[in-house]
Design brief:
Mean pLDDT of chain B: 83
Mean pLDDT of chain A: 82
Low-confidence stretches of chain A: 271-277
Distance between the termini of chain B: 36 Å
Largest sheet of chain A: none
Distance between the termini of chain A: 50 Å
Structural class of chain B: mainly alpha
Radius of gyration of chain B: 18 Å
Oligomer: heterodimer
Order of helices and strands of chain A: HHHHHHHHHHHHH
Strand content of chain B: under 5%
Strand content of chain A: under 5%
Largest interface: A-B, 64 and 56 residues
Number of helices of chain A: 13
Number of strands of chain A: 0
């Protein structure tokens, strides 16, 4: 399977994206901000389609849209965490714009390229060329390094933002920076698993890791391992069964890992402690 | 434009969808369950795709998946302080897995991927009279269900702990509300598309809650805004080339922004 170049590209880019998704996902789950990630995924859809409409490289549209909206969502709330009604309202409209872009694109480019909308929504990890892989790796490394640099204060701000602010941690700035990182990751992951499915890569591995351990750095590492394992497992699965799209394989493995985390001793204990509270 | 039967049916269906979404959306926004609502609106997509794949009616798939999804979300540990983060992880995973399954079903079903756009974005313009009748029955049922539990649901939504102490069955209400939300999202998303349903659920209700804190007035206002933007969107869509969904969401979002800055 590794003799095919597209598989090597898919695995390399997929690994880079998964490492970043695992690290960011841990903070998203801790901060209860997965809805923001969901919104950014849909923003990525609109951004990519708008870029296609205007004939710009889809990646420029992706990054501009997701990072721009991420900063906007951060600006709407004093603590750098927007209310979910505000997020929902903004992204319902972004979806409307996406529908407009899709209709303009499909009517004006009807010849031959009708599946562009679908590949934006559900990804095309087998379609990545060498330069796309290089970009994915560079962005993933940058995202992970920056996240790890701000990990300590970000963790403090995520767990107790009021105390962190009192201790002089720049809570708001961290919220901004974190959302911008999620925006960059959303844009990058859209190419691999698609705008609609990147949420799974952010939510499931981190959700499982948080169930298995309460230690932050161990949870982060575990989340990365599960995310990378999901990408490898999903790509291998769709290689073995060609009818299965790779993005489904990736999300299916990640979901299975999350379900498994419920069966472990740690996972059960945590459910019980939540249930009796 | 009312000389065309398809436009008449579009207005009828749009009005019914708007009324349902306005009422249920008001509670959804009050309960801060926007993420759950968005997920339930999208879950119909794999339901319909899976039903088409195994050859049963798409309607059955819509309802089966949305009710199951509502029960999965309802089965979660209750959101209390940090318990909330568990909830977002489950909903996020559920949504991604549902969409991935929908994509799988569509690819297994002779690879005609154009159906995805119709399932996700819907179309107001191909609605039959029978569908309108079905939708009317559903609107009556779900608005009736919400009206029947409105008072205790309001209490439980505003102050869960006090309501529980007063003997209000908060857990049962929360499950019932999610199921109604799921059924309504399923029924409406097969006609207008999953993405537009979410817009009609969240935007009019969020606008109404910016304008007034009174429950009854807010509910009425949410319905009025939802109906108004749907009618305006249909009219604009009729006279121009661009999709109705774009007009409806833009008008509703415009009202929301206006309300946010003036009220």
């Amino acid at each position: 399977m590794l003799s095919h170049e597209f598989i090597r590209h898919a695995l390399l880019a997929g690994t880079a994206i998964a490492v970043a998704a695992g690290v960011l996902g841990y903070f998203l789950v801790t901060r209860s901000q997965l809805f923001t990630a969901d919104a950014l995924g849909h923003v990525a859809f609109t951004g990519a389609l708008l870029a296609l409409c205007f004939g710009v490289d889809a990646r420029i549209g992706l990054f501009a849209a997701t990072i721009g909206v991420a900063l906007l969502l951060g600006a709407l709330e004093p603590r750098g965490r927007a209310d979910d009604v505000v997020i929902g309202s903004a992204f319902a409209w972004v979806l409307g714009v996406g529908v407009l872009a899709l209709s303009i694109f499909t009517t004006s480019h009807s010849t031959g390229n009708g599946s562009a909308g679908v590949s934006v929504l559900f990804g095309s990890i087998y379609g990545l060329d060498a330069s796309a892989v290089r970009t994915a790796v560079v962005i993933a490394v940058a995202v992970v390094v920056v996240t790890l640099l701000i990990a300590r204060p970000l963790l403090f701000a995520s767990i107790d933002s009021a105390v962190a602010a009192a201790r002089g941690v720049p809570v708001r700035l961290l919220g901004f920076g974190f959302l911008a990182l999620v925006g960059a990751e959303a844009a990058e992951a859209t190419q691999a698993v698609g705008a609609l499915l990147l949420l799974g890569l952010l939510a499931a591995p981190a959700g499982a890791a948080v169930r298995l351990t309460t230690r932050p750095y161990r949870a982060m590492a575990l989340s990365v391992v599960i995310a990378v394992g999901s990408v490898w497992g999903g790509v291998a699965f769709s290689y073995a069964v060609p009818k299965v799209p790779p993005s489904f394989g990736i999300i299916a493995v990640a979901t299975a890992a999350y379900l498994l985390s419920y069966t472990t001793r740690n996972g059960r204990r945590r459910v019980e402690s939540v249930g009796t509270r | 434009m009312f000389q065309y039967p398809f436009m008449v049916n579009a207005f009828r269906a749009g009005t019914l969808v708007a009324v349902t979404a306005g009422v249920i959306g008001w509670f959804m926004v009050l309960r801060r369950q926007t993420f759950a609502g968005h997920t339930l609106a999208l879950i119909g997509f794999p339901g319909a795709a899976g039903a088409t794949l195994i050859g049963v009616s798409a309607q059955l798939g819509f309802y089966a998946f949305c009710v199951t999804g509502a029960l999965v979300i309802a089965a979660l540990p209750v959101a209390h302080g940090n318990g909330f983060r568990e909830e977002t992880a489950v909903i996020g995973t559920l949504q991604a897995f549902a969409l991935a399954s929908g994509f799988l079903f569509v690819s297994l079903y002779h690879g005609n991927l154009n159906g995805i756009d119709a399932l996700l974005f819907g179309s107001f313009l191909g609605i039959t009279s029978a569908q309108v009748a079905g939708l009317a029955a559903l609107t009556a049922a779900s608005v009736g269900a919400i009206a029947a539990m409105a008072r205790p649901l309001l209490f439980a939504s505003i102050d869960r702990d006090v309501a529980a102490a007063r003997g209000v069955p908060v857990r049962a209400l929360s499950i019932a509300f999610l199921v109604v939300l799921g059924v309504a999202a399923a029924a409406t998303s097969q006609i207008t598309g999953a993405l537009l349903v979410f817009a009609l659920l969240v935007l009019p209700a969020a606008t109404a809650q910016r304008v007034t804190a009174r429950p009854a007035l807010g509910g009425v206002l949410a319905v009025a805004i939802a109906v108004l933007v749907t009618w305006a969107g249909l009219t604009l869509g009729y006279y121009s080339d661009y999709p109705i969904g774009f007009y409806v969401t833009s008008l509703a979002f415009g009202l929301y922004v206006l309300a946010s800055f003036t009220c």
